[in-house]
């Protein structure tokens, strides 16, 4: 399926005003394509290839090559904001794991990574998709902004309800396999809590993400650098807070208002056709509605496996819960920035399915590059990789010491713990950045739009990899700890 992006052009009173709005210059072949699009809306709905849309920017926008410093500054500040959001999410998770509803219904712990992963499945994908549209000049008018943003908010609402329901069903099944028992009241509670959480969180975070991208364009900042971290900054804390509140309310209603959870589930399921109809009517989201389900459902299943590992490890090591949102969130944020940038670059270079080498349009890009070339190459993506890797150590050091301070030093941050934890974090991010390059170029070659498909897989794989490496780190520290001295007491 050929890739197209939709241009929503305002109605001009005459042709001269239209020409001034899009200062194309002497590129006659592009001009003819634009005029053809105006005269045949009934046949092509105003669709233009990405490479044509790129040349129709207003005000002859000139892209300057980004330096190490500009990338670092634009990425690091949102990265820090997002990191502190994940720190507070970790503290919330550390506290709510002892609440009666979480101790009684352990499937909620299995559900947590899937819900937190939805920011990668939905909000970060939304950020990547809107960033590409903004960089291609498709969100420069009020009409374009309104149509694209409303369509995408409707789309993620539909996806959130479906994936939230499936995530709850998977958690119920996994919990039933683990305990050989499924209680109907608990299953209703799990499904209703998941639906309310993902619906509200997706709407609020979607609005924030769209606002960040519009503002970034206004102040001439590349939205690819800031949108995905900001989308995640409130994602974890919002989802965990909503889940804990809603699940507690529904837990208290068991035995007195048993109808509440089933009514909530029925209401959300009945609302799905309405969201589907609205998203289908919008040209900006119609294609994603038809073909965007495999990544989000697949990512949810991968995150659920990570949730099963978390449920098992939380019962062994009490201190692991507070670090889980941080290590997963940092990896997800950094790889999402890289994925969004690579996807935008590919959209600008050529049509979907055509790969050009960086700096040489006559040569096809190599998909399966070596890790050495990925990290040490001269291309713009290798430069971004080095900048992002440079943020891992200082970022995690800031975050884990913030956790230690907020917990009044109960986390026993020994030198050995810090070294092992940072090693796990570096391994996770390095793996994700390399996989991102290969996956996105492979998807582009196969005519799969990476804006809709790459980030869900990358963030869910990052969640699974992060919790697995964290579990290995805690197990290693437990095996070498001197239990008689009380060191690493938080690992017990």
From TrEMBL:
Pfam families: MgtE. The chain crosses the membrane at residues 68-93, 146-175, 187-214, 226-247, 259-278, 290-310, 387-406, 418-440, 461-481. One of its GO terms (cellular component) is membrane. Residues 112-245, 324-472 form the SLC41A/MgtE integral membrane domain. InterPro entries: SLC41_membr_dom, SLC41_membr_dom_sf, SLC41A1-3. The keyword Ribonucleoprotein does not apply. It is a multi-pass membrane protein. SUPFAM superfamilies: MgtE membrane domain-like (SSF161093). Keywords: Ion transport, Magnesium, Membrane, Transmembrane, Transmembrane helix, Transport. The keyword Membrane applies. It comes from the Eukaryota. It is found in: Membrane. GO terms for biological process: monoatomic ion transport. Belongs to the SLC41A transporter family. This is SLC41A/MgtE integral membrane domain-containing protein. It comes from Cryptolaemus montrouzieri. The lineage of its organism: Eukaryota, Metazoa, Ecdysozoa, Arthropoda, Hexapoda.
